[in-house]
Specification:
This protein is mainly alpha-helical. The chain has 17 helices and no strands. Helix 7 runs antiparallel to helix 11.
């Protein structure tokens, strides 16, 4: 049996764990520590992004010596212990220190992505990227629902006990694969690509802008929904938050059933995503829900196409290195968005992140046109995935 489904499962479990508090950090800090300042919450989320961004290159280097799965076993043991510690700590400074250290350990699971792409044939990259993208979105759905249930029916600290359980599941899967010798460790002898570093960096700028725009409205979405709709309850807010993830799942199913290959058009999906963000900013319930649907469609299409572009520009021996570079740009986008969201909400209100995110998507479209148009017209190397504009 191929190890790919098991490794996708590891990614899914990790994503669910990470997503449980994502729409509920304002409620979590208020319930656990009595902190309601949006700037404090934004700063915490920015620091979360920073430590993950800084940790990943180090884990990538260490994985070359130990092997990705062996590394994951050790780091998830540490992450699980720190999760349990976060569940019992009562001091806010101690919570900051323990939770950020936990995220340093958890960052290692991101290496599963380039590890999978390394050992999959190039012809299957597009479908695998689509599956992993849906895993992220579906994990967001399940994580938001679980997080909402825990916060609504139990104490906020119980979220971290659920996180520790997810770490234990990841460890079990990695041990199973190593025991059955299903995971290869040798690096294929592939010639390094030349002249792609500049294209990778240009792609990184585009992905920074896109990630910033996709992330900016997340931290305070649950509070915004409750304010706009007048409907209280974390479970309902989590369900609305997860609409883009449900759209991604539906799109992947349709693509697989129709055996469609991914297109390469970026500007049209970005325009649709921009429209979806502005509809959400209106505050009208019907427009907000339609906006979530449009934003989810655009998020899936753009994510898959940009990530496919990364692996088209890179070579198997450089996947982990180039992925780490791109993740730095994505991390910067999330960091700036997380830090800026708190200040925006504090100064301009709960709807302002949607407007600024829409401007960000417009800037992303311009950057793509200026930085990547030539590279896409003349790819660095042929890809087995045909480009069909949709």
């Amino acid at each position: 049996m191929s190890p790919t489904p098991w490794l996708v499962a590891v990614t899914a479990v990790a994503v669910v764990s990470d997503a449980m508090l994502l729409p509920f950090y304002p409620q979590f800090f208020a319930a656990r520590f009595g902190v309601t300042d949006p700037s404090h919450i934004g700063l915490y989320l920015a620091m979360c992004c920073l430590v993950v961004m800084l940790a990943l290159p180090g884990w990538a280097r260490l994985a070359r010596r130990l092997g990705t799965l062996r590394l994951l076993i050790g780091t998830q043991v540490v992450a699980g212990g720190l999760s349990l510690a976060c569940a019992v700590v009562t001091s806010l400074p101690w919570f900051w220190g323990l939770s950020l250290t936990m995220l340093v350990a958890k960052a290692s699971y991101l290496l599963v992505y380039p590890y999978l792409m390394h050992y999959e044939p190039r012809a299957r990259h597009a479908s695998l990227i689509g599956v992993l993208s849906v895993v992220v979105h579906a994990g967001g759905i399940l994580g938001a629902v679980i997080g909402g249930l825990v916060l609504e029916h139990w104490q906020a600290r119980q979220v971290f006990r659920v996180m520790a359980l997810s770490d234990a599941l990841q460890i079990a899967v990695c041990l199973l694969l190593l025991r059955r010798a299903r995971a290869p460790h040798a690096t294929p002898d592939t010639p390094a690509g030349s002249g792609t570093s500049g294209a990778i960096l240009r792609l990184g700028v585009v992905m920074l802008l896109f990630t910033f725009s996709a992330t900016l409205a997340r931290p305070f979405f649950a509070r915004y929904w409750e304010s706009a709709s007048g409907l209280a309850g974390e479970v309902l807010a989590g369900a609305v938050f997860a609409i883009p993830g449900a759209v991604a799942v539906a799109l992947l199913a349709l693509d697989l059933l129709g055996r469609r290959r991914p297109g390469d058009a970026i500007l049209v999906p970005l325009a649709i995503g921009l429209t979806g963000l502005l509809l959400q900013a209106s505050g009208e319930i019907a427009a907000l829900l339609v906006g979530r649907l449009l934003f989810g469609w655009a998020l899936f299409r753009v994510t898959v196409r940009l990530e496919l572009r990364l692996f088209q520009l890179s070579t198997p021996d450089r996947y982990a290195s180039d992925f780490s570079k791109i993740h730095v740009f994505q991390g910067l986008g999330v960091l700036v968005a997380s830090w800026g969201a708190g200040h925006l909400v504090d100064a301009q209100g709960l709807a302002s992140p949607f407007v600024v995110a829409a401007l960000g998507l417009g800037t992303c479209a311009l950057a793509h046109r200026l930085l990547l148009a030539r590279a896409e017209a003349s790819p660095a190397r042929p890809s087995a995935s045909a480009s069909a504009r949709t």
